[in-house]
Specification:
Layout (H helix, E strand, L loop, with lengths): L5 H12 L3 E5 L2 E6 L13 H5 L5 E5 L5 E7 L2 E8 L6 H10 L7 H10 L5 H16 L13 H4 L1 H9 L19 H13 L2 H9 L13 H22 L4 H17 L3 H22 L8 H12 L7 H7 L4 H12 L3 H19 L4 H7 L5 H12 L3 H7 L4
Helix pairs in contact: 3-4, 8-10, 8-12, 10-11, 10-12, 11-12, 16-18, 16-19
Length: about 400
């Protein structure tokens, strides 16, 4: 349809939803409206993928389970989002701010703005896009007519590495996916890998995983896969908790994965997401292990606390307060159980995170230093050299992709 006032239309939508709305002509943004104040657009890291969706109506889900809806007519595209069904925690929002290059003095404003976006079901976003699509293309579509695109699933391994700066799946997962099953022997094998945090053994086992027929959980294949996924998510979260993962973190992650599974419309994508979920839990537990041994409750609590506060200056006093221990007792018990001081453990964990960020992102060392809560770049460089054996720029050059 001609003579559409996109500024007026999208302002109304933004005011109604409380989520940002944009208009693009090709790759150029020509309009932006958000009720909440965001110093940087949270869409920035995913802009290329979202604008690559070719359908008149589609959506994109980020690794943090935020979603964006898009309606387009030729070169003109309206993009709504982010929205979500489950609110992100502080750590996830700080990770997003880091990827969006939010300045340190604007961090609080960005976090406040993201927390002000009200959760909304994806179906509500898509219904609004159906109305926008009718205005743009004259098509009367409903939810049952939509062909959903999820570009993030198409590049699962690379996107996970680049956006979360964490090691993803092994190369063996690039082959055609095999069916995941819920027989007792297979289930117990997988859960053992999760509980022990043994990613290497999990990869090796999956490469030769036996073909076992699963039980019937539904009367159609897609619902069968979704029900199997829900069962697997529930069991994997419990196994991760037994392996030392924080209970709230494990259950929240399970909820988020199940929500994303319910939005998928193909068995292949659900299978890929299931692999990713199992490896995600296994890798998180692996990070909690000290010297290959099962962590004590104290060590697990310390590791979980550090994981949640990696992007902040961490003090033993604040940690002790959070764990309901005195500072001296916490430090003494931790060293007795692990053989390392609490300060060394904190800095080692920050160094490991810095390695992932240097290897899988193009962020400068000064930005990584600020993100990880170091007082200065020189302090960051000294710590990194002590625990990694080289300077940050040397580590990045050594791990550059060919």
């Amino acid at each position: 349809m001609e003579n559409i006032d996109y500024s007026y239309l999208c302002s109304i939508i933004a005011n109604l939803l409380g989520a940002p709305v944009r208009v693009f002509e090709g790759e150029k943004e020509v309009f932006y409206r958000a009720v909440v104040r965001l110093p940087k657009d949270p869409m920035t890291p995913y802009r290329r993928d979202i604008l690559a969706i070719p359908a008149h109506i589609g959506y994109f889900i980020t690794p943090d389970f935020h979603y964006y809806g898009i309606a387009r007519c030729e070169e003109t595209a309206v993009v709504i989002g982010p929205s979500m069904q489950i609110r992100s925690d502080e750590k996830a929002l700080k990770d997003l701010a880091f990827r969006c290059d939010v300045a340190p003095d604007e961090m609080e404003e960005f976090l406040t703005g993201m927390k002000s976006i009200l959760p909304m079901p994806l179906d509500s976003i898509l219904q609004i896009l159906c109305a926008v699509n009718y205005i743009m293309n004259g098509e009367k579509l409903g939810l049952e007519d939509l062909r959903i695109y999820d570009a993030e699933q198409a590049m699962l391994k690379d996107r996970a590495e680049e956006t979360r700066a964490e090691k993803g799946f092994g190369e063996e997962l690039a082959i055609e996916p095999q069916e995941m099953h819920n027989t007792l022997a297979t289930e117990q094998t997988i859960l053992t890998f999760v509980r022990r945090g043994d990613t290497a053994a999990l990869k090796e086992w999956i490469a030769g995983m036996p073909a076992v027929r699963s039980g019937v959980l539904a009367d159609n294949a897609l619902r069968q896969m979704k029900n199997t996924f829900i069962v697997t998510a529930t069991l994997a979260s419990r196994a991760a908790i037994r392996g030392g993962m924080d209970t709230e973190d494990a259950l929240s992650l399970s909820d988020a994965y199940i929500q994303k599974c319910e939005l998928l419309g193909s068995i292949e994508r659900i299978t890929n997401l299931q692999y990713r979920m199992i490896f995600d839990y296994t890798e998180r537990v692996e990070q909690l292990r000290a010297g290959g041994k099962a962590p004590s409750r104290l060590v697990a609590d310390v590791a979980n606390y550090i994981r949640r506060h990696l992007s902040e200056p961490i003090t033993t006093q604040e940690m002790a307060k959070a764990l309901f221990l005195s500072r001296s007792r916490l430090s003494t018990r931790f060293r007795a159980e692990t053989g390392v001081t609490l300060t060394d453990f904190i800095l080692q964990e920050k160094t490991e995170e810095a390695k992932r960020l240097l290897q899988y992102t193009d962020k400068p060392a000064v930005a990584i230093s600020a993100y990880l809560g170091f007082s200065s770049q020189s302090h960051f460089s000294r710590v990194f050299k002590k625990y990694a054996g080289c300077l940050p720029h040397e580590y990045r050059k050594r791990h550059e992709k060919g």
